[in-house]
Design brief:
Structural class: mainly beta
CATH architecture: 3-Layer(aba) Sandwich
Strand content: 35-45%
Shape: globular
CATH class: Alpha Beta
Helix content: 10-25%
CATH topology: Protein Transport Mog1p, Chain A
Length: 136
């Protein structure tokens, strides 16, 4: 039997960003609202609305050959060094608004997550929830 309120406490669905990265945590009420199809060469996924959102992107290729190259490519404003899931990362402001964290998932694969200012406190938990079939 179902208890009252059980659905409200249910975990949000798995958030698939690409064929090799997914998020196991999104703030409640966010559903996929944009981005591209899941393809092997990287993709952007957007969850939420214009005012309350999470964006995630996976990038493959020479721009993600190593951490120094990807860090420069990510273009994070006012960057602060950190780590996410044991990997070096940089967190700061996104040129288009909101907060962003970027990291090298593995040589040749970089990732970043951007959140609206209203979800700034959720940025690190969302990034920490990222999973990949290699290394996790």
């Amino acid at each position: 039997p179902s208890r009252p309120g059980a659905a409200a406490r249910a975990e949000p669905p798995l958030a698939v960003v690409s064929d090799d990265l997914w998020l196991t945590y999104l703030p409640r009420g966010l559903r996929r609202s944009g981005g591209g199809p899941v393809v092997p060469d990287g993709v952007r996924a957007r969850y939420g609305t214009a005012k309350r959102y999470v964006e995630a992107q996976v990038e493959h290729g020479t721009m993600a050959a190593d951490w120094d190259t990807y860090r420069a490519h990510a273009g994070v404003l006012d960057p602060a060094e950190t780590t996410i899931r044991g990997r070096p990362a940089v967190v700061g402001a996104h040129p288009g608004g909101g907060r962003v964290i970027a990291w090298l998932e593995r040589p040749g694969t970089g990732a970043w997550i951007r959140v609206s200012d209203s979800l700034g406190g959720e940025l690190l938990p969302i990034a920490a929830s990222a999973r990949a079939p290699v290394g996790d």
